[in-house]
Design a protein that fits this description.
The structure is a single chain. Strand 13 (294-300), helix 12 and strand 14 form a beta-alpha-beta unit. The strands form 3 sheets. Strands 3-4-5-6-9-10-11-12-13-14 form a 10-stranded mixed beta sheet. It has a two-stranded parallel sheet with strand order 1-2. A two-stranded antiparallel ribbon has the order 7-8. Helices cover 37% and strands 19% of the residues. It is an alpha/beta fold. It is globular. It folds into 2 domains: 7-72, Orthogonal Bundle (DNA polymerase, domain 1), CATH 1.10.150.530; 77-370, Aldolase class I (TIM Barrel, Alpha-Beta Barrel). Bound molecules: S-adenosyl-L-homocysteine. Residues 126, 128-130, 168, 172, 203-205, 225, 268, 270, 299, 301-302, 345-346 line the site of S-adenosyl-L-homocysteine (SAH).
Amino acid sequence: MRDFVSVSAKQQKINLLNFDRKGMQAFFVEIGEKPFRATQLIKWIYQEGEYDFDQMTNLSKPLRAYLKEHCCIIAPDIIFEQVASDGTRKWVVEMGGGNKVEAVYIPEANRATLCVSSQVGCALACTFCSTAQQGFNRNLSTAEIIGQLIAANQRMGEQGRVTNVVMMGMGEPLLNFDSVVSAMNLMTEDFAFGLSKRRVTISTSGVVPAMHRLTEVCDVSMAVSLHAPTDALRDILVPINQKYQLQELMAACQKYIATSPRGFITFEYVMLEDVNDSPADARALVKLLKGIPSKMNLIPFNPFPDTKYTCSTPQAIERFRDVLYKAGIVTTVRKTRGEDIDAACGQLVGKVKDKSRRAEKLQHMEAMHEH
Ligand code: SAH
């Protein structure tokens, strides 16, 4: 058990998990050390799992003493675990100040995918997403994002090591740009997790300017939460579309593909009965995606309390898929994982000290509706 005093004292220190290699180099240069110290430190932390500065034997004694006095290496703790019947694990991760986020571990035959959160809650208001109903508290730091991966590997051991990461947990990763990019740099960094860029995916609701910025600094795989083939419908389902319309979004996708390691974008499309699941919607989607190398991931809607939506029927999903398929678009229907523990897409809620007071406003609006 950590006692309160030492935790608060440690929190005054610089958490080295907040630095990617470049950031760590800049830090060492600033304290009058050589940049190569960054690689040494990163190897200790991520390859050796060594958090005790005294054990970092290739650092000089004065440097070890300096680091001990001014720095710390602290990953967030998993405080609660639920294991679904299909082996999916949902972890509640403690972020302090009454905030908790969720991370989901999804084992498959030859890989293990970790779904990572980027924010406490979400500032966007997609109508079919449970995280959105929680409101928003704050961005996670790089340490808190990469810490979810560290915690997962510690929990699962060598056999269950994470091989793929999707930034598809709570939050909109591109609205927490710098911390998310540094965390993804650590995921793909040879001296840290060394995951291939094909195995790290950022998912966005379509924050177009940030997508352009990302093209310049990072080339992990990209997924875009599309959910509607027209602006009229997307304006409702994914309200950020009112700001960045489909035409702009598609142009940003084209630009990203030019640098992407996969040469295509994965589009996510939640299947909502009688909302966006007709063959006409599918045909409109084919038209929209014309000329964009894409893979389509249809996600059966996962319900949550008080939602007004229902999931499309299997027949409707099949019909929809066939239209895309016949048009030559590679289309998969996402298998729902961890449903029995509310760990499926759009069901992650954590515990959000809502600063946007969205939950309160929604309740207020509903009360007005009822009267
Ligand atoms: N904000 C980012 C990251 C979240 S990813 C984004 O929007 O891409 C989570 C994925 O699950 C997104 O595609 C999201 O639209 C989808 N999703 C949200 N709620 C869902 C629900 N209730 N059922 C199925 N998928 C959902």
